[in-house]
Design a protein that fits this description.
This protein has about 270 residues and is of the alpha/beta class. About 40% of the residues lie in helices and about 20% in strands. The strands form 4 sheets. Strands 5-4-1-13-14-15 form a 6-stranded parallel beta sheet. The chain has a 5-stranded parallel beta sheet with strand order 7-6-8-9-12, with helices on both faces. The chain is globular, with a radius of gyration of 19 Å. The model has no long low-confidence stretch (mean pLDDT about 95).
């Protein structure tokens, strides 16, 4: 990475990079500490729209990782910001949990099931058939279809759970309408994070564990990318993709020195 401009900003995925469920990945706490001590801007990104940044901060803290609330950027926040820019003060029928409804309220949106501007689908652990049916009927009547992220499934202690992408596919099959996805791999998620930090793509690194979401969205947003092998993608699988990360490391523990090295170069 020495042939680029100095690194000013770091973006990092959460699940598979910093934590597995409730357990911290070795080196994650040290990596976040190094970022904070460097004084550089950084954000922890997640496609998970269930939780608010405050909830996620508490979850990470229980795992021994101290991330400030303002340094957490979710697909729910990116979705709310996108809608506020597209149609300020609009209305939406929301299928999701506190992370999404709070974000929508905070940008001044009205939640309603009566002729909403949008149907916004997020993640929830308790998808209601009644809510999905209402979403289908509202889309049929002309509501625009937005989904926080395309992930078809997610992990849980008991095994795989259906996630936003799977339910979106159900609604799309019933309506013939495809949603616009805001979260990764849409580079819009990266650009919204860069804007939040007032950062530039040429001086930013994206750290992720998935080639098909983290790395591709970082690449398409013009960022340098680092793949860690503690999550979804193995070193062997990288060769199957038509694009490559800028760098591959075993875990974020291997990046602690990089953050400190950049710091010493700039001071």
């Amino acid at each position: 990475m020495t042939d680029h401009r100095p690194v000013e900003t770091w973006l990092t995925d959460m699940d598979g990079v910093l934590v597995h469920e409730e357990d911290a990945i070795a080196g994650a706490a040290e990596f976040v500490t190094a970022l904070k001590e460097s004084g550089r801007g950084f954000l922890v990104l997640t496609n998970n729209s269930i939780f608010t940044p405050r909830d996620l901060r508490a979850r990470l803290l229980r795992s021994g990782i101290d991330v400030p609330e303002e340094a957490i950027w979710t697909s729910a926040l990116a979705t709310a910001q996108f809608l506020a820019e597209q149609r300020p003060g609009g209305s939406a029928y929301v299928v999701g949990e506190a992370g999404l409804t709070t974000a929508m309220h905070d940008v001044g949106y009205v939640m309603t099931d009566r002729d909403p501007d949008y149907v916004v689908l997020g993640e929830t652990r308790t998808y209601s058939f009644e809510a999905i049916t209402r979403a289908i009927r509202l889309i049929e009547k002309g509501a625009r279809f937005i989904a926080t992220n395309p992930d078809p499934s997610g992990p849980s202690p008991a095994g795989t759970l259906p996630a936003t992408g799977s339910v979106a596919a159900l609604i799309s099959t019933a309506t013939g309408r495809q949603p616009y996805y805001i979260g990764k791999p849409n580079p819009l998620m990266m650009r919204s994070a860069l804007n939040r930090l007032d950062a530039h793509s040429e001086t930013t690194i994206m750290v992720g564990d998935r080639m098909d979401t983290d790395i591709i969205s970082g690449l398409e947003a013009g960022l340098r990318t680092v793949l860690v092998l503690t999550g979804s993608t193995s070193r062997e699988q990288v060769e199957h993709f038509p694009y490559r990360p800028s760098r591959i490391v075993d875990s974020v523990a291997d990046l602690v020195r990089s953050v400190a090295h950049e710091d010493s170069q700039q001071h």
